[in-house]
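Quiz preparation item.
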């Protein structure tokens, strides 16, 4: 049944009771009982009448009852209906706006540092976990170097033609030596000049097949390991996450579910899907529960909005994730405002 059909089947009394249940749940996180609703309704009706309406709403799939006598909670379908058809989105809170303006008002040429501050500010404002997907760096590469840190840890240093430097830690194949790392670095530098990271990856895949015999097997393995890292198959260095403690400390937090969420974040092999979610529609998108295909955590909600460069091309995204009882009316406008502000600031920069 479509949302339009569901809404059309709700009379004024059912609609008000449903809205009160959702708003009370979002505020308190607790099931809502008929007696509580009876005192809050604009129309004077008995608790028995309210119970009957709530049973009808449950039959329609809009409410759930965790226990027989514990009141009702909105289902994920009910939250979706409320968010899309009944929620009133507030204007951006002036204090929230001022805080974000100050965060992005600092003249910092380091995009990574600036977006890290944005993520921290967004987490502080919303009291949730914030996510920021940084733009890919598209400048040509000037130099690549592998540095051994420990038997199970290595560093790749990427120096770009525009002066940007990225340091990324990864797990090298077993048996790597300083000599094999130097050889792998020399191999990459010989073909990297003038190429972006994406272009180098494509070129290197072809060259590796042709010239693999020129490298010893350990160096070749290191090259492939570096490729996997740059292609974001493990922890994506473009994804900034802040505010984990906000979820872990939440009174309503299901700790096991929260741990699953962050395990997903740490091991996600295709984090670009985060950006693809944002690209599927204009402006802010809201994913509730099982709709949130990025994570296996079914009890979460994600509010996400893309930001664009000067050419109006989507290059990244900002978002807030938390339990389904997020304050959507407040979080949606600040996520939208932050995405637009980030786009304007980054578009005004060179490179």
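Solution:
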């Amino acid at each position: 049944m479509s949302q339009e059909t569901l809404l059309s089947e709700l009379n004024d009394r059912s609609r008000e009771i449903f809205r009160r249940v959702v708003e009370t749940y979002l505020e308190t996180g607790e099931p809502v009982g008929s007696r509580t609703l009876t005192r809050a309704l604009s129309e004077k009706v008995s608790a028995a009448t309210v119970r009957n309406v709530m049973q009808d709403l449950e039959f329609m799939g809009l409410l759930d009852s965790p226990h027989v006598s514990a009141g009702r909670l909105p289902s994920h379908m009910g939250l979706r209906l409320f968010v899309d058809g009944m929620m009133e989105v507030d204007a951006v809170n002036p204090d929230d706006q001022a805080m974000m303006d100050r965060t992005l008002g600092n003249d910092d040429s380091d995009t990574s540092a600036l977006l890290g501050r944005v993520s921290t500010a967004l987490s502080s404002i919303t009291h949730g976990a914030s996510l920021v997907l940084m733009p890919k760096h598209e400048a040509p590469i000037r130099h690549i170097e592998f540095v051994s840190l420990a038997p199970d840890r290595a560093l790749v240093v990427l120096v770009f033609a525009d002066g940007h430097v990225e340091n990324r830690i990864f797990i090298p194949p077993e048996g790597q030596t300083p000599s094999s790392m130097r050889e792998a670095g020399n191999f990459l530098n010989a073909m990297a000049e003038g190429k972006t990271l994406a272009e180098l990856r494509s070129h290197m895949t072809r060259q590796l097949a042709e010239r693999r015999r020129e490298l010893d097997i350990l160096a070749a393995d290191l090259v492939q390991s570096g490729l996997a890292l740059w292609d974001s198959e493990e922890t994506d260095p473009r994804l900034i996450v802040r505010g984990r403690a906000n979820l872990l400390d939440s009174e309503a937090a299901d700790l096991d579910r929260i741990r699953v969420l962050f395990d997903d974040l740490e091991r996600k092999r295709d984090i670009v899907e985060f950006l693809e979610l944002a690209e599927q529609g204009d402006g802010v998108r809201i994913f509730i529960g099982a709709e949130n295909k990025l994570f296996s955590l079914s009890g979460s909600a994600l509010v996400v909005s893309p930001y664009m460069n000067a050419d109006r091309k989507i290059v990244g995204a900002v978002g807030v994730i938390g339990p389904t009882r997020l304050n959507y009316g407040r979080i949606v406008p600040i996520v939208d405002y932050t995405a637009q502000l980030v786009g304007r600031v980054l578009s005004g920069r060179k490179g």
